[in-house]
Amino acid sequence: MLNKKQIRYCLDQMAEMFPQAKCELNHSNPFELVIAVLLSAQCTDVLVNKVTKELFKKYKTPEDFLTVSLEELQQDIRSIGLYRNKAKNIQKLSKSLLEQHDGQVPRSRDELMQLAGVGRKTANVVASVAFREPAIAVDTHVERVSKRLAMCRWKDSVLEVERTLMRKVPKDEWADTHHRMIFFGRYHCKARNPNCPECPLLSLCREGKKQMKKRGLADMIPNKEEGT
What we know:
Elements: H1 4-17, H2 30-39, H3 45-58, H4 62-66, H5 70-76, H6 83-100, H7 109-112, H8 120-131, H9 140-148, H10 158-168, H11 174-187, H12 206-214
Helix pairs in contact: 1-11, 2-8, 5-6, 9-11
């Protein structure tokens, strides 16, 4: 497991690599963000943005999503995986917002998680991005990067990863760290073919060192661990 200084080094390097990291789901208000994040489950942000470009022209409020049939809404998001279930959740979520929250997206994570289709990760994203509340949303990228760099244990659950990062990362950096780790995992430390040879964190990364040895590039592994 990395020590405090090593984690600080990792955070600083990611900040240098991706200083402008932010949510890549297109939205103009908290309601659109909730819908976009809900649609993004097991789907790329690129595809979601392609779909919501037209979707958010047709549907602007919770009421709008309830004025059409479920079948019509399913057709509108058909190109997205799990579209049938997501369409059902969008209508249930819209109904709950109208009946319980005066049509407004609630700010608290607990209230957000009571909405259909909204799990802990989605609630954290909305709380952080829409309302600037300190939160770390653990998606596949954040989980992979955290474990490869030994910030967390391999056996940790998603919730354990979140809690570990909340302990080890300064609270005022939670939101930025979440986005930077996503960018780091999405564009650099990819699930397949991570860019280990050019990684500034290679000296600290056990998985990176394994990858380098497999590629016959062991001589490129730094001898000294950074951040020590």
